[in-house]
């Protein structure tokens, strides 16, 4: 479903501030995989997700989604293939538009636009059913503006919007980092259910080792723009937080205490 072949990204190339964010990444994701990605600050996690989404061009290598080479395709043209939920609950939605209008925009992602009713009665019924599945009472507030929702409600809505058209790939970029622990747990539970029920292929970035172990069927650790550890199946399920901390220390080397602390 996803192939990164020798992907390289350098910021401020040729200057004193040059930073190799992705150093020849090779990464394969099979259909139905749900991989969690962990690593210290500046490891390249978000850079990798932005490269996959097409936020910026890469400096080397190829990116393939479902067998299609999207390396030179701009972000807006990848929208039909990718759903994304951001760290900031204020992103990914239009705050001054109603919940139902945001869902209508999400339903039309990647499709040709024309002149028609903004939201049909059939779509309203679909949205009501989908919102009810969240268990947050949003089905009774479909005409409310999204900007009035709490952070947790907004992230749950963004999750629903990202998965509404069953994208080939779902990207979750630390989407619970700005939420309180109870709300974060609820959003992660919804993430698991939405990925499972829709049979999605997903990549989730997190700093939380416990969440990285608990969710998904595969775990990848990054450091200095490279993948340094990749584990799945029963081996992943048997990992502990201490195992991961020790693995990071062994693979990343000395002088990484600040990054060890960041991996909470």
Give me the secondary-structure category.
alpha/beta
User: How confident overall, as mean pLDDT?
Assistant: 88
**Helix residue percentage:** 25-40%
Strand order of the largest sheet: 6-7-8-3-9-10
Number of helices: 10
Number of DSSP-assigned strands = 10
- Biggest sheet layout: 6 strands, mixed
Low-confidence stretches: none
Quickly list its features.
single chain; 264 residues; alpha/beta; six-stranded mixed beta sheet; four-stranded antiparallel beta sheet; 23% strand; globular
What does this structure look like?
The protein is of the alpha/beta class. Helices cover 36% and strands 23% of the residues. The protein is built from 10 helices and 10 strands. The protein has helices at 45-53, 75-78, 99-107, 121-132, 151-163, 181-198, 209-214, 233-237, 241-252, 257-262, and strands at 2-11, 19-29, 34-39, 60-65, 68-69, 82-85, 169-173, 202-205, 218-223, 226-232. A 6-stranded mixed sheet has the order 6-7-8-3-9-10, with helices on both faces. A 4-stranded antiparallel sheet has the order 2-1-4-5, with helices on one face. Helix 3 runs parallel beside helix 5 and helix 5 runs parallel beside helix 6. The longest helix is centred in the C-terminal third of the chain and has 18 residues, at 181-198. The radius of gyration is 19 Å and the shape is globular. The mean pLDDT is 88.
